[in-house]
Amino acid sequence: MSGFDKVVTSYEAALEGLSDNMTVVAGGFGLCGIPEGLIAQIKKVGVTGLTIVSNNCGVDGFGLGILLEDRQVKKMISSYVGENALFEKQLLDGELEVELTPQGTLAEKLRAGGAGIPAFYTATGYGTPVGEGKEVKEFNGRPYILEESIVGDFAIVKAWKADRYGNCVYRHTAQNFNPMAATAGKITVVEVEEIVEPGELEPSQIHTPGIFVNRVIKGTFEKRIERRVTAKKEA
């Protein structure tokens, strides 16, 4: 295989270079499309003082929630945090800093970071606590606040398939924040269900080009359901 081969065979190699006080961007939405094995490796390594950028912080005992158990997370930048009791306790006890960000703004912060755009104006959050202390500018008579983009030291992403060059395809709703997260890391690591050979993926179907990806690892996934809702069977 050529020097473009980005596949690693161990989680130690996948997260080589991760250290205390780094910023980690994590793809996923709730428990859908999360890089389970990479999160477990972060817990195993034991790094602390992390700033985690993700839509949410998993649930108690699963997903990013396991990083709260040993107080590895210093700050969360998220848009939704309502499914984790330990998260709530650490926030109320002053042990965890939380920067709540509107969901669309968070997505754009990551997309802009990956595109090399340092900041952008958005109307979302103007006149609310989200906009406090931020620069305001009017466009066509409407006020907008300035939001800074985000680039993490690491980005951890879950994809359905990837080839050895790092080209990625996501499956259905597991796409969510993963494409934006993949572009927003100085080092991007993708955990996948299947690794295929170059040329096997239809070019028009690739969601994340390999130019954004540094490492690829094949994982196994529990794919836990965050909130199971079923209908009663009629007689």
From TrEMBL:
<dbReference type="InterPro" id="IPR004165">
    <property type="entry name" value="CoA_trans_fam_I"/>
</dbReference>
<dbReference type="InterPro" id="IPR012792">
    <property type="entry name" value="3-oxoacid_CoA-transf_A"/>
</dbReference>
<keyword id="KW-0808">Transferase</keyword>
<dbReference type="InterPro" id="IPR004163">
    <property type="entry name" value="CoA_transf_BS"/>
</dbReference>
<protein>
    <submittedName>
        <fullName>Succinyl-CoA--3-ketoacid-CoA transferase</fullName>
    </submittedName>
</protein>
<dbReference type="Pfam" id="PF01144">
    <property type="entry name" value="CoA_trans"/>
</dbReference>
<dbReference type="InterPro" id="IPR037171">
    <property type="entry name" value="NagB/RpiA_transferase-like"/>
</dbReference>
<dbReference type="GO" id="GO:0008260">
    <property type="term" value="F:succinyl-CoA:3-oxo-acid CoA-transferase activity"/>
</dbReference>
